[in-house]
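thread from #wetlab-drylab

HS: before we spend reagent money on co-crystallization trials with adenosine-5'-triphosphate, can we at least see a predicted complex? here's what I'd submit
DV: go for it
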Amino acid sequence: MNLEVDNIHVTLSGTNIVKDISLCVKSGQFIGIIGPNGCGKSTLLKSIYKVIKPKQGSVFLDGSDVLKSSPRSISRKMSVVGQFNDLSFDFTVHEMVMMGRTPHKNLMESDNKEDYEIVDAALKKVNLSSYSNRSYLTLSGGEKQRAILARAIAQEPKFLVLDEPTNHLDIKYQLEILSIVKSLKIGTLAALHDLSLAATYCDILYVIKKGKVMASGKPDNVLTKELVKQVYEIDCEIYTNPVTGGLAIAYFPPVD
Ligand SMILES: Nc1ncnc2c1ncn2[C@@H]1O[C@H](COP(=O)(O)OP(=O)(O)OP(=O)(O)O)[C@@H](O)[C@H]1O
C-alpha cells in the first residue's frame, strides 16, 4: 500500500509549521523523518493521519484520498503509534490491545475468537503475553510503548505511522521495536531522533529543518557531517562501524 503526500502546508496559530512537504512511501518501505526538536515532524505526521487539517496539500493511501475519507475507513488501513499514549481509564493490557480491533467491527459487534487470537499474537510479538491482565496504567513507559505497538499490530494495518516510537525505551527495546516494525513488511513512515538507528532501519530518510525538507535519499547518501552541522548545528564525524559495517556517528560537544 503506497502513501503519496504532496505539497503539504500546515499553519498553526498563524505560524507556518510545515512548508510544502512532499514524500512517498512505497509498499514495504521503511521511511524515516529526522530533524531537530520543533522542526515539524509530528505536525507533518498528524496532518497525514488526520489529527491536524493541512492548509494545503493532499495525502493519498493506495489511491484513497485520506483527507476526504472518514477516520474509520482510514483506520482500517493505517495504524498510528504516537508520542504520548496515556489513557484516562484503567483498562487491562488485553482490553487496550483489543481496541485495535474496533475499526474492523460493527457497532455493538462483540469480540470473537479471531479477535482474541489476533490480540494474543500481537501481545506475543511485543513480548507482553504475560502482561495481558495487568492494568495498562501501571506499566512502565517502555512497556506502555510496546502495548501501544501491539494495539497497532492488532489493527492489522497495511500502513504504519510512528512518531518517535522508541521514546522511553532502553536500547534492547529500541532495537526490538524497530525490528518488529521492519518484520511487518508494510509501508512505514516514522519520525526518529536517533540518527544511527534511522540509518540502520530506514530505506530512505527525509531530513526536515524549520518545516522544510532539506535533503532526502538513502541514509548513506544523506547523512553527511555537513548536513548534520547544517541541520542540528553540531559537529560530528561519520564513519563505517568496523564491527557492524553500518554507518556510525561520533558527535563533538560544543566548546565555549
Ligand atoms: N497548536 C499549535 N499552535 C502553535 N504552534 C504549535 C502548535 N502545535 C505545535 N506547534 C509548534 O510547531 C512546531 C513544530 O512542532 P512539532 O511537534 O511538529 O515538532 P517536532 O519536530 O515533532 O519536535 P520534537 O522532535 O520536539 O517532537 C513547534 O515549534 C511547536 O511549538
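DV: The longest strand covers residues 15-25.
HS: ok that's useful, forwarding to the group
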